[in-house]
Structure prediction request, 340 residues.
Amino acid sequence: MSAQSGITASPQLLAKFHQFLEQDAKCFVIKIDDTLTQITPFEIISGIASHLTHEDFETLQSLLQHSGIENEPAYIILQNDNSAADKSYTFVSYVPDYATVRLKMIYASTKSTLLKELSASIKLTSSIFITDFDELSLANWKTIVKHERSETPLSEQEQSLQKIKNDELSYLISNKPQKLADVSSGSSSGVLSFQLTPEAQQEIAGTSAVGSLINLGITSNETVKVTSVATVAGHSDLLSEINFPEQPQYSLYHYAQDRYAFIYSCPSGSKVKLRMLYASNKLGLINTLKGPTFGLNVDKEVEVGDISELEVSEFELSEQKSDANSNRLKFNKPKGPRRK
Prediction:
């Protein structure tokens, strides 16, 4: 069951939607308002033919561009190419890649609410997901219709692209609504969405020895657990101890006395939903480590793609700087005169 955002259709939307049907228009653009509380109408594109034309899609693209929202999500209802009395429509979730993670999640979790509101009045034959502005074209529309009407399977490249889109949408829809507040414009707001397992809490609290390394991962049960622990003899051994090539990972490295490094690795082959999940919780976990529960001095934050990109020399330089500071002569502050 998909998560719900709690955002509802406004009276203005319902009124405008009936106007869209009465006009026999070709396209209806719908947005969520700036306060993120209501689904509102944006624009109706009437069209001049009995079917969608190149001009209709040009008008749609021009509308989004001139309104400055081509990089923002939107819902779009398109009338199918038929002249029958029983009209049918396609629901388009337009979620451009450049949209913020927060808006992607909000639109994904509001989609089912909107569909329930509208499906009673119209016949929706399909629902598609578009991430590229250029895909809002007649040529792409014809390709979609052709694939829907044909039994010919998609090509391997098309299947791969569709899988990426489905993975991202699946993650967005399945996320719990209370996590929406934890995600801002592409990064975490600083609150960890998941609980640390008791084992993870114990390991983090006990990481007192220099060279200690704790690797952490997010589970399917929405907890942060320990995936492995190690004691690194030297910085050069770090790569072999945190190498986990299949998915993202957090690593906590005690690289110098009372100094910790937080390493976030996100391999190039990681799934989209895992990339988003780890990226949106990174800052929250760092703040948890620095907070009153653990009180760790995390003074170095490193983010890499493949773990082979990690430069271990930066830990050596930081350690040398730390040692130099600690070896400086310290002078006691003169005491004030004794009270009589």
Remarks:
- The mean pLDDT is 77.
- Residues 101-119 form the longest helix (19 residues).
- Residues 8-180 form a domain with the Severin fold (CATH 3.40.20.10).
- The chain has two domains: 8-180, 195-326.
